[in-house]
Amino acid sequence: MPDWASMASLISLGSVCLCLLVPAAADADEAIDFSREIRPILAEHCLHCHGPDAKQRKADLRLDELASAIAERGGSQAIAPGKPERSTLLERVQSDDPDVQMPPADAGQRRLTRGEIDLLRRWIAQGAKWSEHWSFVVPRRPSLPTVRDATWPQNGIDYFILSRLDREGLRPSAPVEPVGLLRRVTQDLTGLPPTIAEVENFLADDAHDAYEKVVERLLNSPRYGEHMALAWLDAARYADTSGYQADWERFMWPWRDWVVGANNTNLPFDQFTVEQLAGDLLPNATPSQVLATGFNRNHRINDEGGSLDAEFEVEYVVDRVDTTSTVWLGLTAGCARCHDHKYDPISQKEYYRLFAFFNNVPEKGIDGRHGAAKPFIEVPNPAVQARIADLKRQLETRHATFAQLAEGSPERKAATKEIAEVAEAIKKLQPRAVTQVQVMQELPGRRPTYLLNRGVYNQPDTSEQLTPGLPSSLGGLPHERPADRLAFARWLVSEENTLTARVTANRLWQHHFGAGLVRTPEDFGSRGERPTHPELLDWLATELVRVNWDMKALHRLVVTSATYRQSSHTTPELLSRDPDNRLLSRGPRRRLTGAAIRDQALFVSGLLSGTMGGPSVKPYQPAGLWEELSFGTGKTSVDFYVQDHGESLYRRSLYTFWKRTVAPPSMAVFDGGGRDMCRVNFELTNTPLQALTLQNDITFVEASRHLARRMLQDGGTSADDQLTYGWRTILTRMPRPEELAVLRRSLERYRSVYRNNAAAAEQLLRVGESARDAQLDAAEHAAMTMVAHTLLNLDEAIVFE
Amino acid sequence: MNEQLNWERRRFLAQSASGLGVAALSTLFAQDGFAASGRPELPHFTPRAKRAIYLFQSGGPSQMDLFDDKPAMKEYFDKDLPDSIRMGQRITTMTSGQKRFPIAPSIFRFRQHGESGAWLSELLPHTASVADHICFVKTVVTEAINHDPAVTFFQTGSQIAGRPSMGAWASYGLGTENTDLPAFVAMTSLGTGNKNDQPLYDRLWGSGFLPTTHQGVKFRGADDPVLYLKNPPGVAPELKRAMLDDLGELNRQRLGIVGDPEIATRIAQYELAFRMQTSIPKLTDYSTEPKHVLDMYGPDVAKPGTYASNCLLARRLSESGVRFVQLFHRGWDQHNTLPKALRGQCADTDQPTTALIKDLQQRGLLDETLIVWGGEFGRTIYCQGELSGTNYGRDHHPRCFTVWMAGGGIRPGMSWGRTDDFSYNVVENPVPVYDLHATMLHLMGIDHRRLTFRFQGRDHRLTDAHGNVVRELLA
User: Which positions in chain B touch A753 (Cβ < 8 Å)?
Assistant: First the structure.
């Protein structure tokens, strides 16, 4: 067993190895790249006191601007280009004199390393060449780099990846075998594994573009839109409740369905953006475009008794600014709510000019009891309306029959009762015939916006009313139309903005590879990580614009690259060189999300419902979870968890009801919580609670039973055939003989147990509300259920690789 | 983004993989359970408390009816709160519309207790018996006046959702002493209090931007004390064991081919889950407790999910090495009929709370366990609703209220801070929530300024940019 001390020492070795990944200028003459090597040092150690924050700034020195950094101050310069010996910055970072040293002794920060100091010295000696932060520079389409093996690349992406591997002296991994590739791309684009028939069709297709055909099929599958919506719902902090205190129910699901539909019709991302941020302001806005603006009304809304409207009105606008700047700009603008941003060029005043774009909604701070908070639109609910129309037709028929019946006859009495029942059913359905969905709307005038001191709602600086506008570091809006949300949304997807295309391409890369080219997808600022492949990021960003923001085209590009098609198998050497796969010398391998794990279990068992859209559903959930925390008296419609039955138990997880204060447990345990606020980055843990969930949650036990039924009924007659069928259904590939041997042994054991314990078999087969096939022998079925359960719990079953 | 942690883990795995061969990995990870290790640089100094038990009283207990005796108020019955006291400070909209703010003196008798002479209300006879162990902080000040933001602030140091809770920080910083149990456990209860009392939210024990390994694992009074702990019906433990053996074998075969060390971790997690299926029911089975111990906690201890039962479970978890145990007891939000409701609330909690202190003491654990008792704010001296000689209600009050602490590193038998005659403003030694947090972390060996996590480009900490350790509270 390793103790912590030895583990720690191994970890410290790691920091040495990381240097391998950054081809640092080991050569003293090599030109030092300011953006890559120097700015991160300044951002880490200096900008807190010598950065954009005017209030915090010490000695009136800025190290985020060249002019200030090289200014003469009383005969000395912090940075004297070409003259390290005259640069006080170098003196101070090396000094041990508490009055001189930087960072100051009492700042609680570490000193600079010798390597960092050396870099600074050589950079100054080379003339202290300054450049703007990379993400604020317009991306230019780079030419494809040269590579040693020109036969490997399948498309542009691969040149960038391979040229980097060439430099590192690494080779890409071998291609994943066809079955593995089919599994990977099917899970990746639809969230579900391929069926055995799909595998066989793929293997039987000798066409040179067999894979491309599969990709087209998957991109055109309605499952694609559902799967791609999940990450967007996390970013958009979508949920079915309001999120504060009592956590009232709301009805934003038509907006969720809008997202799924937009993905499936491949609405170009620029339109996807404009409609969600400002669809209401488009000329002749369609109902669908207004519905899209639900994006920025998905934030939490408070209803707590005694709370102050003014306080929470501010919170909602803050949330919109934070979410919008995270999702489209990759900027932590929210840091400038209370003071100038400490690391990036966004002043507090500029923050409130962004705030002004979103501060013009006719809304109330305390709202959202019993449904939608103003402003909202009413969206027809076609399923309910059809049901009402149907009932009304029935009513007419019955009235007609009724008229023919003799007065006082028993038939007439029965008919009276029936008519009353149908009328009652219609009355009950009426309120659900339309759904009120929260959307954006603009006040006729303009609500004044002021800078809020320390970000506090009741401390406006009324000396200056602020107009909507961009931070100067991001450029300016065109003058031909008013600076409103629509102008802002259009600017976001214009070529003047250096960020949106990069940030979007990066999130798309994250979807496929588990991590973005920028591994801090929420922060493209000076404290965020630099891209591992900056040229590739810019190439993808410009490609996205070139194809008119066609997201399917970009997904297609990624999944048809050679980079994507590499095997994800690894070796100790690769793990040691590149533990996080930053160089992409192998394919992606990571655990699936909770939603995907559940959907897959339902799919392979044949239980998954294909129904799309509509109100959220309430599948199995351990009793009492809501009740323990809620008002518990039925004050809200979500005090008690009223589980659904039938088909609703087996819908895709996208449609599972999301109560913000008590997230669905089987998703939360797989790191899927956090619909309180915008989230674009993902963490994957590996915990015993996940193991317990997969073993004991009703969903997975019931799915095992149905998968077992399929194995017994559709898998052939011999045990080996049945076991192979189950294996292929969940894992896609064929089992190896050693693996089949384990399953055979398992099955034998379970058979002997359940043959001798009929009661136990019956109990296991009763888990879940779906009926079991009584034709099957209980002991056989229970034994195979345990085998299927083992399969669903395999590491391989719950990873994407 | 927790690049660093992930990276470190993978780095370690990579090193092990190259040094030991992939197949040997799975045995290595028997220890990789719940946040075993914490941060390597922690503790920053010798901790005074190895573990903490936080008895959170949700809703806002009334300080002037329990701890902060204000005899001068007898003279003010039904008189208006002087403007010189209110000073235009904001109040909630539940009472801001009231025509008057009549003073409601507490109807409960106060007496001094122990050698320390602590003043306590008659509603807390049991607490009174351990008064000499307790340090009463009478001048805690918070920034929020409504429950959701106030509770969120108390748990996470921010009124805005999305930050890690205090227990998650402790787990992240210190890890657990027992790798078979989570470092952070949360429990909730509601006694005789208003069923319509303040709701709670997952985020109060959430991990925010820290990895979810650090979020509080909820222990419940239900059939399954931890979610999904029990095997499905028809699956006996021996059968489960056999299934895990097969599962492990298949996973190991795959590990040999794929080489991803996460598979080794997964195997270890399944083994830990299996051990939890035995160890957790043992923890929640009180049949090994002697009768005199059970009696100390009172009759409710036999009912899973009650405050009394949670207090005993807190002791057992803490004793087993759980770093941070937090109870959330609801029912203190007494806007009306406060005297009756408060009586019930105290009857539910006074004895078990006291039993926990005595129990830890008799086991020699009190010195190394920090106990904290308190809610998210206090209540107003002025009456909400009807005032009579026997009945009144009180609104939320953030400007001064009492939180008490006992055990590891706390100076016992003292009161800290002074409020005015109306228990409305702090006269001496205010203790902002940040300072309370800083002090709690300090006792656990953590410098609150140095326990940070980079998120959105910023090094976040529990105390944000604030917080001072209140040295006077330390033993």
Answer: 239
